Amino acid sequence: MLRFAAMSGLVLAMATSSAYAQEAPSAGDLLKDPAVKAALEAAKASEAQTIADQIRFCEIPAPPFKEEVRGQELKRVFEQLGLQNVRIDKVGNVLGDYPGGAPVAAPRPRVVIAAHLDTVFPEGTDVKVKRQGTVLHGPGIGDDCRGLAVVVAIVREMKKAKVQTPGAITFVANVGEEGLGDLRGVKELFRVTLKDQIDRFVSIDGTGVHVTNVAVGSHRYRVTFKGPGGHSFGAFGLANPIGAMGRAIAKIEEMQVGRSPKTTFNVGRVGGGTSVNAIPFEGWMEVDMRSSDPASLAAVDANFQKAVDEAVGEENQRWAKPGMITVVKDLVGDRPAGSTPENSPIVRAGLSAATVLGFSANLGEGSTDSNIPMSMKVPAITIGGGGRGRDAHALTESFDTTDSWMGTQHAMLVTIALAQR
Ligand SMILES: [Zn+2]
Q1: What are the backbone dihedrals phi and psi of residue 13, each rounded to the nearest 5 degrees, phi first?
Q2: Cα of 297 from ligand 1 centre, angstroms
Q3: pLDDT digits 0-9 by tens, 258-313
Q4: E strands along 37-109, which residues?
Q5: Ion ligand 1 — residues with CB under 5 Å?
């Protein structure tokens, strides 16, 4: 859900940490810097190049868990543009450093600007991009090839204009944002690759100009019920795994959840059994629960667990077969909830960067790579890459390039503002 935010204040990037407590320049001041001004103008003027990159990245397949080839292309581009220390970490994230202007070994703050490599589309999907006027059609063209192209545009034009920042910027093309990827790229970034080194995090994901500061968390389970199974007539009297699952679903559907913050549950897939005349030996279901509030997410999860356990007990009791049906709940998705406060410097920087450029930005909530830093209380936002996206996650996905340069400019000014002390 998106809502409009009041724009207030032009002060950019006042750091939260006392180490960076001095007042940062206003966006207006940043715009007076000739190098920044030149980079922003070039971000608009070179939009055709940015769109060409977006199409090229999109036409390299990047199915879940198979992002290597697209990652190699981003590595090549990072090197060609002169980023330092270009590397690929253990899980496949591609990183490159834009050195801070200050002549110190490890300039702070360190800002990470990321976009994700992976798509939801399986191997073999036709990823050829087709143009119709201003509209590009192709699976993944907006989500998140737009983000990747904007990352590259920021690097290209900041380098060319020789923009210097007191802080360091690490640009990242990360793996594992979508679905069962379960944010594994950004988890690795924060837990291993750049552990304790990230002061501010921005994910460029999706389209339009927006600032997402609320992370909707989710828990996903695959629940498997098991029993001996047998002939439907001859073995009648056995407890039934699908019977237990039916009882569990009935209980789940009766669960009560709060409206604000919005908390949800869904039994999305079921399966099991082998034949109409066999008592099944197995039944399974997949369940998704979400909330932006960690406590509400924990509560709905606890109620779900209880519902499943009680259902198994009741099925066994019904047939007087204690212990016959067993259940395993596998956590297959775990995206932590969290948020960055609306009045925090990073959110204000995101909004005011839009204001001074003459655009308007909405505040929003979503489930993105920023869930990880938000849950760890590291300042983080997710912003759009501009343009207008449609049908993300569908084969009919499209991206309207009309005025898409606005997203490039906005992301660039956010990057520069956050790399101030
Ligand atoms: Zn995405």
Answers
A1: 55, 45
A2: 22
A3: 888 899 999 999 999 999 999 999 999 999 999 999 999 999 999 999 999 999 99
A4: 84-88, 94-98
A5: 143-144, 205
